[in-house]
Amino acid sequence: MQLLVVFCLFVVLGGCRHHSKVDIDQISSQGSSQTVKINKKKNLSLRELGYPSVNDGILLERKAYMVSYNSETLIPNWVAWELTAEHADGTWPRDHHYYEDESVPEPRCTMDDYHGIGEMGLSKGHMCPAGDCKWDSIAMSETNLLTNICPQEQGLNSGMWNQIEQACRRWAVKYDIIYIICGPLLYRQEHTTIGENHVVVPEAFFKVILRLGDNPACIGYVMKNGERGKKRNYINSLAQVERITGYHFFPNLADSIRSQIEDNADEDMW
């Protein structure tokens, strides 16, 4: 029965290599298309490439990342940042304090909402990870704002999600700069929530990573909240993640580059 449930939740989008997929029909639509312009120049800013469509999200610009915050779910819609080789490591120590984000309206997520979540098997899951922000004290502290956090199953947070974060830092060093967008996925169903403010617990998560230069490539991951395993088994192409999320990622990317990368997703290319 358990295997049947997992299978039913993740069968979608034929043509991917031996990995689980989240059902697009279960996912809330989260965006729409925009125009495309940018070429393959290596050192673009993420702002130049363009952010996903925002819908009703509140855009919050931080030192290291941009977040679209959802005032209904009290978690981010998406978080986006560029990671350079210079910023892939640093000496600033990890900040273990979390902060209520007073820049967003009440009701908002508070630390009280996360009290006792360990008993539910949940943790505070960073979207932009602290490990990407060891280069600056402000950047480090801002990763612990609760608008950058989702309730995330402990097994995913310390397992595959962490594996992908570490891979991104290696790729940033290898390619000088990469562009990352990640966030939660919500099924069309009643959601589990935590705390008095009813912070939504996502059913799944996505992450897309882009590199430019002479050999541009993009890779995506989609995984159920609580999934355990090797990240290679949850690879999706850019086009697949766009279909699942409803977002149009990197909308200013030139058509010639998009056509080259949108259907190819192979870790061996990284």
Count of spatially separate domains: 1
Q: Residue-averaged pLDDT, rounded?
A: 88
CATH H-level superfamily: Extracellular Endonuclease, subunit A
- Look at the structure and give the CATH class: Alpha Beta
Class derived from helix and strand content: alpha+beta
Question: Spatial order of the strands in the main sheet?
Answer: 1-2-3-6-9-10-11
Query: What would CATH call the architecture?
Result: 3-Layer(aba) Sandwich
Largest sheet: 7 strands, antiparallel
Task: Give the tally of β-strands.
Answer: 11
Write the CATH fold name. Answer: Extracellular Endonuclease, Chain A
Principal-axes geometry comes out as globular
In terms of per-residue confidence, which ranges show pLDDT below 50 for 5 or more consecutive residues?
Answer: 1-21, 29-36
Q: Using only CA atoms, what is the Rg?
A: 17 Å
Strand content: 15-25%
Order of helices and strands: HHEEEEHEHHEEEEEEHH
Distance between the termini: 37 Å
State the helix count.
Answer: 7
Proportion in helices? 10-25%
